Amino acid sequence: EQVRRKAEAFGIVILHKGVVPVVSDGKRVVVLPVLGVNVGKGAVGDIIAGLVTGFYAKNEPVLATATAAFLVGSATERLYKRQGEMFNSDDLADEVARVYGGSCDLPQIMR
Predict the structure, then answer these.
(1) Where are the alpha helices (DSSP H) in 1-111?
(2) What is the Cα–Cα distance from 41 to 60, expressed in whole angstroms?
(3) What mean pLDDT, rounded, does the chain reach?
(4) What is the DSSP letter of 30?
(5) Could you tell me if 30 and 20 are in contact, meaning their C-beta atoms sit under 8 angstroms apart?
(6) Pair 69, 21: CB distance under 8 Å
(7) 18-48 pLDDT per residue, tens
């Protein structure tokens, strides 16, 4: 609810990268099933921002933001299972491409 209120007050889309990741534009709220581990690592936010920018070219802001966060979260989880905490932004960017090109099950909101 706090994320929704702040987004509404400022007229922006907010991605809260917490234990329960939330995206809101003040009207809609999307609770993501995953944001992954190690989202505080360097460049994770940059990768999310780059994806949001690309998705926003053809999608509305909440969908663009939720999709980008979901893909990065899925990629960080996969990397963590394979490599532990020993991955960098290059590894993450490569894994995002694999997740995006693969057959992951997107939540209903993103279909």
Answers:
(1) 2-10, 44-56, 61-83, 89-101
(2) 27
(3) 86
(4) E
(5) no
(6) yes
(7) 778 899 999 999 998 876 665 666 788 899 9
